Amino acid sequence: KDVVPVPIDFDPRFSSVWKRYVYHITCGSKSPFLNRFAWHIEQQLDVGKMTRAALLLTGTHNFEWMSLYQEGEQRDPVRTLSVEVQIIDPGPLGQGTTMMKVLGTCDFFLYRMMRRIVGILISIGSGRASESQLAHCLNAHDGGTPCAIPSPLLNTAPSRGLCLDYIEYDIPI
Q1: Is the pTM for the entire model greater than 0.85?
Q2: Are strands 162-169 and 78-88 parallel, antiparallel or unpaired?
Q3: Region label for 72, one of left (φ > 0), alpha (ψ between -120 and 50) or beta (otherwise)
Q4: Cα(148)–Cα(140) distance, rounded to whole angstroms?
Q5: What is the pLDDT of residues 124-144, one digit of tens each?
Q6: Angstrom distance (rounded) from CA 54 to CA 28
Q7: Nearest to 38 by CA among 110, 101, 96, 88
Q8: Closest CA to 50 of 105, 115, 104, 102
Q9: Residue 114, pLDDT score
Q10: pLDDT over threshold 90, residue 145
């Protein structure tokens, strides 16, 4: 723990260089120990499809279509994002449970953007949406011609699995 002098115009939210969120998901058997900290999905998910969808999302895109407008938002919706899906060991408390985490690193997350990303990955992993639908929406919005977004790609994950993991600033904190 430390105290560091910062410039008078420093804002902990808007002065960050990048942020990383982690979202936990469990599949299969429901664990009372993990339920409060992860989104439980009863069916098994296709992690391969989710990983390929994460690669489609990785890069610089216009993410306005997958965030909610927040009053006073003045940041450009074109963001640089990195998304990764990892399988993790739930340990003895999660016997019969598949646990995964989605890591999202971005220069600035729009309102509910990370929860929408996870919702999209779940929709694709469960077969309700396809990678081609996601690619089409990304390409259309990147090109400035918004398209009709299939409803499974507007799925928002619940907040209980989301955790702000790290924030990087220009100043040494």
Answers
A1: yes
A2: unpaired
A3: left
A4: 10
A5: 999 999 999 999 999 999 988
A6: 22
A7: 101
A8: 102
A9: 96
A10: no
